[in-house]
Every structure is written in structure tokens, then in C-alpha cells.
Amino acid sequence: MPWLLSLLLISYNVIKTTIQSQKGPLPPYKNHTISLEDRALLDAIVWPKPPAPTSLNQTSDPVHSLFAILPSKGGRERRVGDQLEALVQMQDFQGRPKHYGGDFLVARLHSPKLGAGVAGTVVDHLNGSYSALFPLLWEGPAQVTITMVHSSEAVAVLQRLREQRSDRFFFRSLFRSGKLSENTVCNMCLPHNRPQEPLCNYTDLHTGEPWYCMKPKRLSCDTRINHFKGGYKKDLVTNKEALLFQRSGAEPCFILHL
Ligand SMILES: *[C@@H]1O[C@H](CO)[C@@H](O)[C@H](O)[C@H]1NC(C)=O
Ligand SMILES: *[C@@H]1O[C@H](CO)[C@@H](O)[C@H](O)[C@H]1NC(C)=O
Ligand SMILES: *[C@@H]1O[C@H](CO)[C@@H](O)[C@H](O)[C@H]1NC(C)=O
Ligand SMILES: *[C@@H]1O[C@H](CO)[C@@H](O)[C@H](O)[C@H]1NC(C)=O
Fold first, then answer.
1. CATH code, domain with 137
2. What is the mean pLDDT of the chain?
3. Is residue 134 part of a domain?
4. How many domains is the chain partitioned into structurally?
5. Is residue 134 domain-shared with residue 252, that is, in the same domain?
6. Is 215:200 a contact under the CB 8 Å cutoff?
7. Measured distance CA(152)–CA(159) in Å, rounded
8. Higher pLDDT, 254 or 236
9. Most ligand 3 atoms within 8 A of CB, residue of 127, 131, 133 to mutate
10. Alpha-carbon distance 96 to 89, whole Å?
11. pLDDT digits over 189-247, tens only?
12. Cβ of 136: how many Cβ atoms within 10 Å?
């Protein structure tokens, strides 16, 4: 994402200092510090969430949204090396302006005739409006395309899946001893719906990286011989949430010829 990239570059030269938060001996993986640099990187990928659940007709709709190229400074003709700024006002399916940010927009300035193109930097003003900034790198015609990849409401669903459903991809391991072999499901966290079942805990004592497998019925945890991908879970979003992904897509939503 272009605007993430620029944030990451800005945060790169932060002086490295550490934040000590806990006292007393800790297991090795808990005794590590977050540098300001790490913190800045984490802050840079924070994504604003919609303030409250909304009905589908209150979610961002590229078709109803507005888009304008701002006039050049002093009204003079644009030259190579200038910056072009476009303003986007996102609106919902009922044509009402959005008042919060978080829509995932990508902006592109291109010339199909010349085969030239450049990505724009999208700035989220967090009030439903966005600026897209482009460097003007060539002479002649250019066309601006701004695409809504996902509405802020759809991003919130993706965020929820990332944070709460780390089991959406699952793995398996084979356990073998003599003639017996079994394979079981493995993941970073194991089924909330089967809390009583015994687990094998392979959490890395050094890094703290969690890893569990369901314990095989007849074999012990130390007979694990491999690790493979088991598959992924479908139907993790509700039917209503699924509609958020049908409506957005890779289709360009605004095209303007300069
Ligand atoms: C963390 O580890 C360092 C050595 O690696 C040690 O000197 C320090 O006391 C430990 N801190 C805590 C809070 O356990
Ligand atoms: C918008 O959605 C809500 C809830 O689904 C519904 O009650 C309302 O009638 C809808 N409004 C329009 C104009 O479609
Ligand atoms: C949204 O924020 C931008 C930047 O702060 C500001 O220029 C613009 O007027 C605001 N728009 C609305 C509708 O408040
Ligand atoms: C697994 O082992 C780690 C490291 O010893 C421990 O912190 C964690 O609580 C264990 N998990 C369970 C579910 O017992």
C-alpha cells in the first residue's frame, strides 16, 4: 500500500531505545523489549476501524463517491515534476457522505498510450475524505484511477479474522512409533470448542512462539515426525459480511482524463 510505505520510510530513522515494562526474572521469550523502531512500525500498520456496526446501505460505495482533481497552484499549467492532488469523498449506498476513514483505496496515474504509470499516495483524513497525491513524471495525457479495494467495513471483517481466527488455516502432524501412526490437527491456538481434549504443547521456550497439536490417542507427544498443511476453514464470515466483499472489487471506480 503506497501510503503505508511512506509512513514506514519516515519511521525508519527513529533512535533505538527500549521500553522495559516488567521486573523480575522472566522466561527468555517474555524478557524482550520493543524498540521504538518496532513500535513505530506497529503504529504504521494500525488501521482505523468503523465506529459502530452499520447496515449494508451505510457502507462505502465507490459508485456514489465523489472525486475531483484539485486545480494546480496559481492556476498555471501543470509541468513535469509538479504534484497532482485528487480529492475523494466517499459516500454510502444511499449517497450520504461517510464521516470516518479506513477505506482501502489505491490510486494510480497512468497513460495507456505511453504505457507509463505511477502509484499515488493515498492520505486518509479520517473523516470520509481522502487525498491522492501523484508526481507528474511525463508530458501529455494521463488518466487517474482510484480503486476501492475494500470498504472500511470490509477491512474490519478482515481485521477480525486476522486477530481472532488464527486457526483459519490449519496444519497437521504425523506421529509414529513402531507400527502405530496417527495424525492430528496443529495450530498456534487450538479449538475453543474442545477445551478438554489433551494437547501437545510445542511452544518454543526461547522465542515464545506458540504451537500446539491435539494429542494423538495412542502415541505420546514426542513421537511427532513431521508437519504439513491441513487446509483452511471456509464460512468464517456471516452471509451479511460476505455481501461486503461482493460489492467491492478490482474495478476502477473513478477515471478522469487530464
Ligand atoms: C532479561 O535478560 C537480561 C540478560 O539477557 C538480564 O540481565 C535481565 O535481568 C532480564 N530481565 C528480566 C526482567 O528478567
Ligand atoms: C437501509 O438498511 C436498513 C437496515 O437494513 C433498512 O431498515 C433501511 O430501510 C435501508 N434503507 C434504504 C433506503 O434502503
Ligand atoms: C476532512 O479533513 C480534511 C483534512 O483535515 C479537511 O481538509 C476537510 O475539510 C475535512 N472534511 C470534512 C467534510 O470535514
Ligand atoms: C505451553 O507452554 C508454554 C511454555 O512453557 C506455556 O507458557 C503455555 O502456558 C503452555 N500452554 C498450555 C495451554 O499449557
1. 2.60.40.10
2. 80
3. yes
4. 3
5. yes
6. yes
7. 10
8. 236
9. 127
10. 10
11. 766 666 678 999 999 888 888 899 999 999 999 999 999 988 888 777 888 888 888 75
12. 17
Q: Do 36 and 147 have their domain in common?
A: no
Indicate if 133 and 250 belong to the same structural domain: yes
Q: What pLDDT, on a 0 to 100 scale, did the predictor assign at position 42?
A: 82
Which amino acid, one-letter code, is at 42?
L
- Is 161 domain-assigned? no
Ligand with minimal distance to 27 CA: 1
Closest ligand 2 atom to 58 CA? 1
What's the gap between Cα 124 and its chain centre?
A: 15
CA of 94 to the centre of ligand 2 (A): 9
Look at 17-31, 99-113, 241-255 and tell me which has the smallest mean pLDDT. 17-31
Residue 186 and residue 217 in one domain: yes
Does one domain contain both 60 and 78? yes
CA angle 105, 152, 86 (to 5 degrees): 30
Structural domain span for residue 16: 2-46
33 lines ligand 2 (CB under 6 A): no
Q: How far apart are CA 106 and CA 9, in angstroms?
A: 19
Query: Is 128 inside a domain boundary?
Result: yes
Considering the domain architecture, whether residues 146 and 60 belong to the same structural domain is answered as yes
User: What is the best residue among 54, 57, 243 to mutate for testing ligand 2's pocket, by most ligand atoms within 8 Å of CB?
Assistant: 57
Residue nearest to atom 3 of ligand 1 (CA): 31
